[in-house]
Amino acid sequence: MKAVVQRVQDSKLVIDGKEYSSIDKGFLVLLGVTHDDTKKEAEVLAEKISKLRVFEDENEKMNLSVMDVQGSLHIVSQFTLYADSHHGNRPSFINAARPEQATELYEYFIECCKKTGVPVATGSFGAMMEITFTNMGPVTIILECVDGKIL
Questions:
Q1: Domain 2-150 - what CATH class?
Q2: Please, is 78 exposed, middle or buried when counting C-beta atoms within 10 Å of its C-beta (0-12, 13-18, 19+)?
Q3: CA 51, CA 46: separation in Å to the nearest integer?
Q4: N or C end: fewer C-beta atoms under 10 angstroms in the chain?
């Protein structure tokens, strides 16, 4: 399971021209699921993201978590995180989990994040979405969880 975590001032997601969800300060989390992922990866990744200390404290040091700053998570499925572009110019997405498995683990990941106490907004799995956000920093962290461990 892969996540691109962006520290944002705000994030808004639009589907079919209508606002679907939004957050103020927090993390925009783009989540990709691969074939070997299990609920364990979702649990570990949710815990890691909720405790990731990349918000500035009073000394302007990245020392606070999204929980510490009372931020939110904006979680969006993104199968393209498992793109393989080694051959040619058109990526292959064979490493991304099939929608049935990916949907289940995406929804489980959302539930794991909610259990941390951080407010959660989401996208709609499989929908064409437009996301606008203001990245603070910019700060972007890429996390990958394999066999229940963060790489």
A1: alpha beta
A2: buried
A3: 9
A4: C
- CB-based contact 109:27 (threshold 8 Å): no
Q: Is 78 a catalytic residue?
A: yes
Catalytic-residue membership of 103: no
Catalytic site residue from 55, 79, 109, 122: 79
Catalytic residue among 80, 103, 116, 125: 80
79 is catalytic: yes
**Catalytic annotation, pick one of 27, 34, 55, 78:** 78
Q: What is the pTM of this model?
A: 0.93
Q: Residues 15-69: pLDDT tens digits?
A: 999 999 999 999 999 999 999 999 999 999 999 999 999 999 999 999 999 999 9
d(CA 24, CA 140): 17
pLDDT of the residue at 92: 86
Cβ contacts of 55 within 8 Å, gap of 6 or more: 7, 62, 63, 64, 65, 66, 68, 69, 71
12 by DSSP, 3-state: which?
Answer: strand
